[in-house]
């Protein structure tokens, strides 16, 4: 987490994350397309580890290769600029907000954590959690319009559109299609996902530190593990958030038959849950088609080659 008392770690962290996000963008781009339900490559007959007939979908690297074959190398970086801008804005707002949020009864930061009594430690954890929650929520709200633009730029791959091209033009296009609320499409499930992860990690770390593990050197590894589990548990909210970001936005990716028009994010959740699609994209290596299929000569085959992209995990 970025320190609210030093601008050097802030900008060095932003520079490092910018590099990492740039290198990994093609994979994240392909994952977004999977999350919104687009599967351009037909599944192939295979078997699971238990020998059961199944239909295997391309892994993330095969998906990226497909994007490269269609759009070229530079096409793998659709949406990168607004995505980097969104991260930078979120990080800066988080840091500035964290500086402003203060509590009268919070233990002094100059006192070592080990020197605090149990009551002070509990208060310190609670105040830090509240500060992080407020800062994270504000950062997400301010940067969310840029995330919406990034996702819609990526979603244009589905129909080959160019409506969302350039930051300024994209801001105008979002307003034309959905008005002011278009900038915050998918915001609520995204806030729920991030807030839930923060609460789960913070509370679990405190409980483990107090009751389970006394060795503070192991704490970072335990917290990382808890963070991974929490992210996995809240993953469906991110799928719903990305679907709502493109739903009914004037792109083929957000309109029938590719995607139903949802009344709200709860409607989207209900529909994806009913069709077992809330975790699509969660597995990037072993992916299986879960839609209607028939067994022919011992091999699983999709009933229709035209609808397989609507039923994936």
UniProtKB/TrEMBL annotation:
Mapped Solcar repeat ranges: 123-211
N-terminal signal peptide: none
InterPro entries reported for this sequence: MCP_dom_sf, MCP_transmembrane
Cellular location(s): Mitochondrion outer membrane
Membrane-spanning segments: 180-208, 220-238
PROSITE patterns: SOLCAR
Membrane association type: Multi-pass membrane protein
Keywords associated with the record: Membrane, Mitochondrion, Mitochondrion outer membrane, Repeat, Transmembrane, Transmembrane helix, Transport
CC annotations in GO: mitochondrial outer membrane
Domain of life: Eukaryota
One Pfam short name: Mito_carr
Entry similarity comment: Belongs to the mitochondrial carrier (TC 2.A.29) family.
Name of the protein in question: Mitochondrial carrier homolog 2-like
Source organism of the structure: Ceratina calcarata
Lineage: Eukaryota, Metazoa, Ecdysozoa, Arthropoda, Hexapoda
């Amino acid at each position: 987490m970025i320190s609210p008392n030093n601008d050097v770690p802030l900008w060095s962290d932003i520079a490092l994350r910018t590099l990492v996000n740039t290198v990994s963008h093609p994979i994240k781009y392909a994952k977004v397309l999977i999350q919104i339900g687009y599967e351009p490559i037909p599944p192939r007959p295979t078997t699971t580890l238990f020998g059961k007939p199944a239909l295997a979908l391309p892994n993330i690297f095969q998906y990226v290769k497909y994007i490269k074959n269609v759009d070229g190398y530079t096409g793998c970086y659709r949406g990168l600029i607004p995505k980097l801008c969104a991260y930078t804005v979120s990080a800066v707002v988080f840091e500035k907000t964290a500086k402003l949020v203060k509590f009268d009864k919070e233990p002094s930061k100059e006192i070592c954590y080990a020197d605090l009594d149990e009551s002070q430690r509990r208060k310190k954890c609670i105040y830090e959690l509240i500060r992080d929650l407020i800062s994270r929520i504000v950062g997400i709200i301010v940067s969310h319009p840029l995330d919406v633009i990034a996702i819609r730029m990526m979603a244009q791959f589905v129909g080959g559109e160019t409506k969302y091209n350039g930051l300024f033009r994209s801001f105008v296009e979002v307003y034309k299609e959905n008005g002011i609320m278009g900038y915050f499409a998918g915001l609520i499930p995204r806030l729920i996902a991030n807030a839930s992860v923060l609460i789960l990690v913070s509370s679990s770390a405190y409980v483990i530190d107090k009751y389970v593990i006394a060795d503070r050197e192991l704490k970072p590894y335990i917290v990382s593990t808890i963070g991974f589990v929490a992210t996995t548990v809240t993953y469906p909210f991110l799928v719903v958030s990305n679907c709502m970001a493109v739903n009914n936005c004037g792109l083929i990716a957000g309109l029938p038959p590719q995607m139903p028009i949802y009344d709200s994010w709860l409607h989207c959740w209900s529909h994806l849950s009913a069709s077992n699609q809330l975790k699509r994209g969660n597995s990037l290596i072993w992916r299986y088609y879960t839609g209607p299929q028939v067994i022919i000569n011992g091999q699983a085959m999709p009933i229709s080659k035209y609808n397989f992209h609507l039923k994936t995990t």
